[in-house]
Specification:
single chain; 148 residues; alpha/beta; Rossmann fold; 5 helices; 45% helix; 20% strand
Length: 148
């Protein structure tokens, strides 16, 4: 088990340098943050360690980020976590809707922190119905598939 303060941000990114940057930027802004390399690691950590926000690389070594997000939404014990993709596959990012959004790489630390704080406020306000979250994820999936 990873020992952290709650609420925390889980960074799922296979590139060590990017994962280090994201984690460092969040910690510097006062957020508890930790990182893993794969979707499987993320699911294992999420079952043992609470997180308020999960940042997901679009393409992980073991699965697409969309698949990981679907698995999160399918698990009632971890579903209320806010989700943001951090990806180069979406040019302009997408503001979070129903706790699901996307940030574009490369990104500035300030934009990262701002997005995470918006997601934390969404989570603290009580989340959104699962159907709305699934619809928001489906919109992002479409963008991933066709490019934007």
């Amino acid at each position: 088990m990873v020992e952290i303060g709650f609420p925390a941000v889980l960074v799922v990114e296979d590139d060590d340098a990017v994962r280090g940057f994201l984690t460092f930027a969040l910690e510097r802004a006062g957020h508890a943050a930790f990182g893993v390399r794969t979707g499987e690691e993320a699911m294992a950590v999420m079952r043992d360690t609470p997180a308020a926000v999960i940042l997901i690389d679009g393409i992980l070594p073991d699965m697409h980020g969309i698949r990981l997000a679907r698995a999160i939404l399918a698990d009632p014990d971890i579903e209320p976590v806010a989700i943001s993709f951090v990806t180069g596959a979406i040019r302009d990012g997408r503001p979070a809707r129903a706790g699901v959004g996307a940030l574009s790489k490369p990104l500035r630390a300030r934009d990262l922190v701002d997005a995470v704080e918006i997601l934390m406020r969404w989570r603290n306000a009580g989340s959104s119905p699962l159907a709305e979250r699934q619809a928001a994820l489906a919109e992002l999936e479409h963008i991933f598939l066709v490019g934007a």
